[in-house]
Amino acid sequence: MLILLALLATQGPAQFTGNAICGDCHRNIVKRYAATTMSREGVLCENCHGPANLHAQGAARLEIPTALDPAPRDAVCAQCHFTGAARILKPNRDLARFRAGDLLTSYASSFIYVAAPEIGGGKTEQFALSRCRQKSPDLWCGSCHDTHSGKTDRTLCQSCHTPQQCNRGKDCISCHMPQNDHRIARRKTPPRSPTWQIRPFTASDNAPRELGLAYYELWTKSRNAQQQGEALRLLANLPKKDAKVTSALNSLRKAGSNQP
Ligand code: HEC
Ligand code: HEC
Ligand code: HEC
Ligand code: HEC
Ligand code: HEC
Ligand code: HEC
Fold first, then answer.
1. What DSSP element (H or E) covers 199?
2. Residues enclosing ligand 2, CB less than 6 A?
3. Average confidence (pLDDT) over 229-246
4. In the structure, what pLDDT confidence band is assigned to residue 167 with cuts at 50, 70 and 90?
5. Residue 2: which pLDDT band, with cuts at 50, 70 and 90?
6. What mean pLDDT value characterizes the chain?
7. Is the pLDDT of residue 260 over 60?
8. SS3 at position 200
9. What are 112-140's pLDDT values in tens digits?
10. If you measure from the C-alpha of residue 36 to the centroid of ligand 1, how many angstroms do you get, rounded to a whole number?
11. What pLDDT does residue 3 have?
12. Is the model's pLDDT at 144 over the cut of 80?
């Protein structure tokens, strides 16, 4: 502990340092990872392992996602692969400061559509609806996706399911995950339409400020009167010092009075 404090005093808290230096000691991983889509999209080793400047000097350990508890483990992927209907930052929080090991709910609240919870830009919202996942919380994104190589294991299904359960063919994915549908449903499920209502993704996403701001954000695109009403109802009684809340209330009220 004393050594750690001394290190922090001389070097400050850990910082991101980039992928290049990792190759000095993790040559194979760096080489494989460089060819993946995520690497080309700019995702750093440190986005999944935590800031590594001290580690690269031999002075600190990093996080291994699979060694984390399920919630922070899932957050490593969800920081980027979860949009849902809306995601609202908590006061004075910045997702750029997210570090592997953190909970997503410490930074932001996430909301999904009540009528179509699978709709969103990430896969997290779909995967949460999968029976496989609901019944086996150890099943996570990294079970099928080897992110160092960019390869996907399409045969993992058979480690849990037997031919007695379904003997309709070996290519489980083509029938149970059409169009990359991560709900892994029994049958191809036709797309549902969202209605105006949203709900918190987890119990810790349930705060009136973030729910109100989520309705506000959706309303700015939809101009749906019910979303406007919910946003007004939820935000109206919050403390006035919050600049985001004040500005949302201003535009909600202005639009309200302009209505024909
Ligand atoms: C998208 C997330 C992600 C990215 C990006 C990523 N890793 Fe990993 N890494 C993991 C996961 C998950 C594990 C655990 C694998 C397991 O337990 O099967 C892991 C394990 C490791 C390990 C320890 C176990 C081993 O395989 O030797 C090292 C070292 C490592 N990663 C280095 C790197 C380096 C270096 C980079 C960048 C070139 C990188 N990782 C990029 C997710 C990631
Ligand atoms: C100077 C050599 C060196 C550099 C540079 C280096 N590592 Fe490591 N790394 C190691 C060693 C040695 C281990 C094994 C530690 C152990 O098992 O005691 C390790 C282990 C890891 C682990 C497993 C968790 C842990 O801390 O044991 C991860 C993840 C990891 N490195 C990622 C990275 C990433 C990402 C970078 C670049 C930002 C990087 N490393 C740069 C030497 C290095
Ligand atoms: C820092 C942001 C970030 C993190 C963290 C991240 N991803 Fe990605 N991922 C991306 C981006 C950007 C793309 C490319 C655009 C797309 O396909 O969504 C991508 C693409 C992918 C793809 C499709 C491309 C391919 O290589 O097949 C998979 C699968 C994937 N990510 C899985 C994961 C998993 C699993 C984790 C957690 C262990 C993870 N990602 C963590 C940003 C991230
Ligand atoms: C870690 C184990 C595990 C893995 C891997 C796994 N499943 Fe499952 N799956 C389960 C469990 C447990 C259930 C729930 C069974 C029940 O409800 O009795 C389930 C349920 C299902 C169902 C029924 C869904 C429903 O809504 O009733 C289908 C279809 C299915 N899995 C297909 C797959 C396919 C395809 C894969 C590979 C892409 C896969 N599973 C991977 C454990 C797993
Ligand atoms: C049971 C296996 C399995 C699990 C668990 C799983 N995936 Fe996938 N994923 C697949 C398969 C199969 C594909 C189809 C593409 C392929 O074969 O590479 C895919 C494709 C993707 C793609 C690229 C396609 C697209 O539409 O953008 C992304 C991104 C992705 N998965 C992210 C995730 C994330 C994030 C999680 C966790 C929330 C996750 N996956 C969990 C099996 C899985
Ligand atoms: C040709 C399409 C097809 C293929 C390939 C396929 N399945 Fe299925 N699967 C189905 C259909 C259709 C059902 C039945 C759905 C229903 O009863 O509503 C089903 C049902 C299931 C169930 C639920 C069984 C139950 O009674 O609870 C599981 C689990 C499952 N499949 C897993 C798999 C696995 C694992 C693979 C790959 C080894 C696979 N399926 C390959 C179409 C397919």
1. strand 198-200
2. 17, 21-22, 24-26, 45-46, 49, 52, 55-56, 58, 61-62, 64
3. 94
4. very high
5. very low
6. 93
7. no
8. strand
9. 999 999 999 889 999 999 999 999 989 99
10. 13
11. 47
12. yes
Strands 198-200 and 151-152: unpaired
User: How far apart are the C-alpha atoms of 198 and 179, rounded to whole Å?
Assistant: 24
Q: Residue written as tokens 């609806």?
A: 129
| Residue bearing the CA closest to ligand 2, atom 1 | 56
Only one residue has tokens 């992927």, namely 77
Helix (H) or strand (E) run with residue 87 in it = strand 86-89
Report yes or no: 204 and 110 within 8 Å, Cβ to Cβ: no
**Whole-number Å distance between alpha carbons of 115 and 132:** 21
The residue whose CB lies within 8 Å of the most ligand 3 atoms, and thus the one to mutate among 38, 97, 139, is 38
Pocket of ligand 4 (CB under 6 A): 131-132, 135-136, 139, 156-157, 159-161, 172-173, 176-177, 184-186
Find where tokens 């705060």 sit. Answer: 207
Nearest to 101 by CA among 139, 138, 124, 73: 73
- Spatial neighbors of 82 by CB under 8 A, at least 6 apart, are 104, 110, 120, 122, 124, 125
Segment 38-60 shows an average pLDDT of: 96
CB 49 within 8 A of CB 98: no
Q: What is the pLDDT of residues 202-223, one digit of tens each?
A: 999 999 999 999 999 999 999 9
From CA 93, how far away is CA 115, in angstroms rounded?
Answer: 29
- How far, in Å, from the CA of 137 to the mean position of ligand 4? 12
